[in-house]
Amino acid sequence: MHIELTSANFDKEVFQSDKPVLVDFWADWCAPCRMLGPVVEEVAQENPQIKVGKLNVSEYPDIAEKFGVMSIPTLIFFKDGKGVDAFVGLVPKSKIQQLISK
Fold first, then answer.
1. Is 5 in contact with 52 (CB distance < 8 Å)?
2. 8 contacts: CB under 8 Å, gap ≥ 6
3. What is the pLDDT of residues 65-81, one digit of tens each?
4. Which of 17, 35, 47, 78 has its CA 20 to 30 A from that of 95?
5. Residue 12: domain span
């Protein structure tokens, strides 16, 4: 299960999290985002040691801009409140798993 991230909860859920957080920057109108969505859900279910959040860039462009998200989908992996790695575009589940297990 993932967390819907918003301006109201982003700091608490990502920066103050006691677990690493994978954030999926996406939008409804983005076909690759819709294709990646089920993969991100699988990753969330299979990795209870992390949090998975989804942020709709159409609703919260300020947050996407803050992290330099220029293309979607973008996945950013946060540890201790800092973005440590990122993927842009449609990536296979195996690459996401590698990122998490580093």
1. no
2. none
3. 999 999 999 999 999 99
4. 17
5. 3-101
Asked if 89 is an active-site residue, the reply is: no
**Is residue 30 annotated as part of the catalytic site, yes or no?**
yes
The enclosing domain of 81 has a CATH number of 3.40.30.10
The tokens for 32 are: 């690759």
Tens digits of residue pLDDT in 29-71: 999 999 999 999 999 999 999 999 999 999 999 999 999 999 9
Tell the burial category of 71 from Cβ atoms under 10 Å away from its Cβ (0-12, 13-18, 19+). exposed
Q: Into how many domains does the chain fold?
A: 1
Catalytic, out of 3, 21, 33, 36: 33
Peptide bond into 73 cis (omega under 30): yes
